[in-house]
Amino acid sequence: MDIVVENSSSHSIAIIPARGGSKRIPKKNIRDFKGKPMIAWTIGAALESGLFQHVLVSTDDPEIAEIVVEHGAECPFLREEHHDDHSPVSEATLKALFQAQEHYNETYDIVAQLMPNCPLRSAVTIKNMFEKFTAEQVDFMLSHTRYGWLNPWWACEMDKSGEVKPLFEQKLKERSQDLPELCCPTGAVWMARCKDFIEHKTFHAPGKKAFIMDWQEAVDIDDMDDWAMAELLFDKLNSNRD
């Protein structure tokens, strides 16, 4: 079933931050993932959603810039700052938003940050989140996924001797069904009202809401174990969609 979203897509921009200095997986963003550069799956989902006036990639790497344009994204300028290992990604997205407004001589109501290391998130998920974001009239909404069989309330800290100490000892005395629900953020889709994003300079602002998405689409690829799991899930998800 097609999802109908409010008619504000002409005032929305998707920004995909993609620096070139990945160390755990060199050239991760443009490494082949199931027949395409990994970032191409994020570009494709953003374009297919039909929500955004621009699907913009913010990168410091000319090679990435060339490849993303070949796959339908826009990259009219390179990132000259916030591309080290320490800068929060929100800073890169905010800088790209300012650059886009100046370059296109436009302003936007909504900005969506889509991380390229989440190649399994679909256009349908982006549209579902956009619909929830606009319907609830919130300022910030971040994609999250529920924890599975590993229950964080039962987490223990282990010292060098192997002795363990529960982080939430009181919670171990409660029934699992009585414990508060926990969820984990994923970089798949973060949305904000541009004016509020500019004011707070981060997506982690007071009052941010969660959008719960399927854990399989929510996978962030940070190392080769994540990569191997994502490849298996890609086959499973696409088999189900077929």
Structural commentary:
- It is globular, with a radius of gyration of 19 Å.
- It has a six-stranded mixed beta sheet with strand order 4-1-5-9-6-10, sandwiched between helices. A two-stranded antiparallel sheet has the order 2-3. The chain has a two-stranded antiparallel sheet with strand order 7-8.
- 31% of the residues lie in helices and 19% in strands.
- Strand 2 and strand 3 form a beta hairpin.
- The protein folds into two domains: 9-146 and 183-236, Spore Coat Polysaccharide Biosynthesis Protein SpsA, Chain A, CATH 3.90.550.10; 148-181, no CATH class.
- The chain is built from six helices and ten strands.
- Residues 1-10 have low confidence and may be disordered.
- It has 242 residues and is α/β, with parallel strands linked by helices.
- The protein starts with 11 loop residues before the first strand and ends with a helix.
- The protein has helices at 38-49, 62-70, 89-104, 123-136, 194-200, 224-241; strands spanning 12-17, 32-33, 36-37, 54-58, 110-113, 140-146, 156-158, 164-166, 183-193, 209-212.
Structural key phrases:
disordered N terminus; 242 residues; Spore Coat Polysaccharide Biosynthesis Protein SpsA, Chain A
Largest sheet entry: 6 strands, mixed
CA(first)-CA(last) distance = 15 Å
Strand content: 15-25%
**Helix residue percentage:** 25-40%
Name of the CATH homologous superfamily of the largest domain = Spore Coat Polysaccharide Biosynthesis Protein SpsA, Chain A
Low-confidence stretches: 1-10
- Total discrete domains: 2
Structural class: alpha/beta
Side by side, the strands of the main sheet go 4-1-5-9-6-10
The SSE order reads EEEHEHHEHEEEEHEH
Q: Can you tell me the overall shape?
A: globular
How many extended strands? Answer: 10
